[in-house]
User: What shape does this take?
Amino acid sequence: MEGSTIIFYLLAILTLGSGLLAVTSRQIFRSAIYLLFSLIGIAGLYFWMEYEFIAAVQIVVYVGGIVVLIIFSIFLTQQAGEKLAQQKLGRQLFAALASFCGMALILLQLYQYEFTASSETATEPTVMNIGTQMLGTDEGGYALPFEVVSILLLAALVGCIVIALRTKTKTN
Amino acid sequence: MLMSVELILNSVNLNFIAFNKYLWPHKMDGLFFTIFIIAIAAAEAAVAIAIIINLYRSHQSIDVENAEEMKY
Assistant: This one.
């Protein structure tokens, strides 16, 4: 095996294993930490595929933002060391069945479809290429979705402030 | 639940990037989808955590089973 294949399998094992632990762990803080490792593993996979920009975005947004937010909210709302209640067996069975059916469907589709890789020369995913296409208004440009996403982020920002404000006036 | 949603969105992102790299390397559409999914996931996580903290303030618990006033 080559070195890069070994690195890929190591990263995949890290991602999948810590993802599994994050879902099955009974202590919510531990599962947040496992989620952190899983996200780092996914960022490593992006680096492995030489999509450095996405990897950087992944680390900044997920590892630096969302996981910290989740850990903060766990600290604010949960007593430390408290174990989550065990789910009912029926629920566990049904969740396992549903995820197994989804996986079987996707694997069936993947193996039936014959993939043909395009032979055209690759565009390098550099920051310059990404920027030109993201703000381009001609064919293949992503200017409109970009603006829609910025509106969505603004709406989420305002919504969070409104949700946080309402209880303050109530408690006062 | 929120963490599971993050995991699912991340796996979708990984699929987008991998298929983009190995099947259509001359285009960057999968990459843009990934960027937009990350942005939407960030917005979703922020709003969901605001709601959860609000729920904790009013119910002293974040268990969804306890917030059942409007259920019936």
Remarks:
- The mean pLDDT of chain A is 82.
